Amino acid sequence: MPRLLRQLANPWSVGAVVIAALVLMPILSVVWMAATPEANIWPHLVSTTLPRYLENTGVMMAAVALLSASMGTGAAWLVTMYRFPGVRVLEWLLLLPLAIPAYVGAYALVDFLEYAGPVQTALRELFGWQSARDYWFPEIRSRGAAVLVLSAAMYPYVYLLTRAAFREQSGGVYEVARALGAGPFGRFFRVGLPLARPAIAAGAAIVMMETVNDFGVVDYFAVQTLTTGIFSVWLEGGNAGGAAQIAVVILVLILALVVLEKISRRRMRFYNPSRHSRPVTRIRLTGLPAVLAVLACVIPFLIGFALPVGVILSHALDASDGWLAPGLLAALGNTVMVGGIAALATVLAALFLVYGVRLSGHALPRLLMPATTIGYAAPGAVLAVGLLIPMAAADNALADMIEAATGADIGLIMTGSAFAVIFAYCVRFFAIAQGAADGAMGRVTPSLPMAARSLGRTARGTLRAVYLPLIRGSVGTALLLVFVDCVKELPATLLLRPFGFNTLATRVYDKASLENLSDASPAALLVIGVGLVAVLFLARTSR
Q1: Is-contact 522 328, C-beta < 8 A?
Q2: Exposure on the CB side of residue 242, measured as CA atoms within 13 A
Q3: Residues 6+ apart with CB under 8 A from 533
């Protein structure tokens, strides 16, 4: 019995369980609010708007996943298997759209292609057209345009994973295929594509999750999805229970997506033929095939990176006084503050959780650790629903209790400050830090911490003296990636920020939603700059 009590009182085990509970709390809160709403509008949602939300969300997920997978897989195949002019540069340029938030790409595309934009203006001047009645031009603010913007922003997820999968394959497999008469398309569809299927499926799953999470693009293009439905029901309808019910639909959709992806790969096995397989030998392309290969790689880069940066940069140069606009420095400071605190807290909590689970002999922490990754799959709007209502209730109860005891009105500590935003960031991106910490600690030779413990080091001393020096590179990467994702996060920030509190992302959204892209451009460029730092670091580490 004393031994059991000592194990239960182990601070590492207790801390790991507490951290896991805090990460899972918003999800459980959403489920509880959906099951016990004050005013049940579920029948009304089912008979009116929910089918439209589901249809648009499903179409967006499928279309964006298909287009992103096509662009990412095709580009990865070309830069891995062939040599053509500029392939070395294009291999890294294809990563740059990761630095562009999708909502920034949406604002830039509309500005570039709308009636008063440079494309239609040039067409009218060239052909002498006087008005929109004289010619046909596709509708810009449409579901199709939203699919294009999201696909151009998210194909690098598929590209990164698929390029790594193609690189790990044996060159001998393709040489045998060529010897048996398989042409370029035969080698791709019958050899490369089946072997890279797990990577493509994983990338497409990430793309679909990010599509469900998106709010800025679909809101700007007036596409009613489940995420915009949460904003409408909660902010416009004033019904938190109804918003929670829509949030549960999103969670079920995400869970079904993950389960289906795992089931589809359950009986499939992929092995390298040997430990020292020959790398793939690139085939040189010339003439028309080389031109087509260059175009296939350049077009995603142009749509996903060059166009948004060009449009935003031109606005920033035309209205240079926007850099002195009131509120920009405050938004930058708020962004650095909440992003930095959230990144540091997330990584420290992930390190504590992973190390605590490794030290713990209990099953509960080990069972809870995989569940903490659900926050990354849950959209920011869902987490906001699960956080704001319970946190506001706790805030009010705490304020009333302190006022009754001391007579001082302290106000709302959590929801009246940036605490709720920071907490949402920690939950949303905890999976990134946890995965980095778990992978890095798993690469440390077990004999090193065992030797440290045998020499009298405590668990905390072993973490400080053995693990941290060996995993500091992975910890730094996790800090950077979490910080960048915090800078770009929009839905959770919009719903949870206190009155008058702006980050760079919300400033871009506020200004662009008023069709004031000139004032939005400085903040947008700062967001892109932060993203570029992360992408360049990622490119360097993935060589």
Answers
A1: yes
A2: 22
A3: 480, 484
Give the chain's largest Cα–Cα span.
91
Instruction: Tell me how far apart the alpha carbons of residues 508 and 105 are, in angstroms, rounded to a whole number.
Output: 12
Spell out a b/e string for 401-425, using b for 16 or more CB atoms within 10 Å of the CB, else e: eeeeeeeeeeebebbbebbbbbbbb
- What distance in Å separates the CA atoms of residue 267 and residue 274, rounded to the nearest whole number? 21
User: How far is residue 48 from each of residues 44, 45, 202, measured CA to CA in Å?
Assistant: 6, 5, 34
DSSP category for residue 284? E
Residues 6 or more apart in contact with residue 178 via CB below 8 angstroms:
187
Give the number of other CB atoms < 10 A from CB of residue 2: 6
Going through 67-193 in order, the beta strands assigned E by DSSP cover 82-83
* DSSP class of 83: E
Token digits of residue 128 = 């002498």
Are 391 and 48 in contact by the 8 Å Cβ rule? The answer is no
pLDDT tens, position by position, for the chain (543 residues)? 454 445 455 677 777 788 888 888 888 888 888 888 888 888 988 999 999 999 999 999 999 999 999 999 999 989 988 899 998 999 889 989 988 899 999 999 999 999 888 999 998 998 888 888 888 888 888 999 999 999 999 999 899 888 888 887 766 677 666 777 777 777 887 777 887 888 888 888 889 888 988 899 999 998 999 999 988 888 788 888 888 899 888 888 887 877 776 666 555 555 455 455 567 778 898 889 899 999 999 999 999 999 999 999 998 888 777 787 888 889 999 999 999 999 999 999 988 888 888 777 667 777 777 777 777 777 788 888 888 878 888 888 888 888 778 877 777 777 778 898 999 999 888 888 888 888 788 777 778 778 877 877 787 788 888 877 888 877 887 888 888 889 988 888 988 888 889 999 999 999 888 888 888 899 999 999 888 887 877 676 655
Q: How far apart are CA 400 and CA 407, in angstroms?
A: 9
Sign, CA dihedral 65-69-70-75, equals positive
pTM of the predicted model, to two decimals?
A: 0.84
SS3 at position 82:
strand
For residue 57 the two structure tokens come to 């969300």
**CA gap 29, 385 in Å, rounded:** 8
Q: Are 213 and 157 in contact (CB under 8 A)?
A: no
CA distance 64 to 128: 37
Question: How many C-beta atoms lie closer than 10 Å to residue 14's C-beta?
Answer: 15
Classify residue 200 as exposed, middle or buried by CB count within 10 Å of its CB (0-12, 13-18, 19+). Answer: buried
CB 486 within 8 A of CB 380: no
User: What Å distances lie between residue 163 and 69, 137, 155, 213, CA to CA?
Assistant: 12, 36, 12, 25
- The length of the chain in residues reads 543
Specify whether the CB–CB gap between 437 and 463 falls below 8 A: no
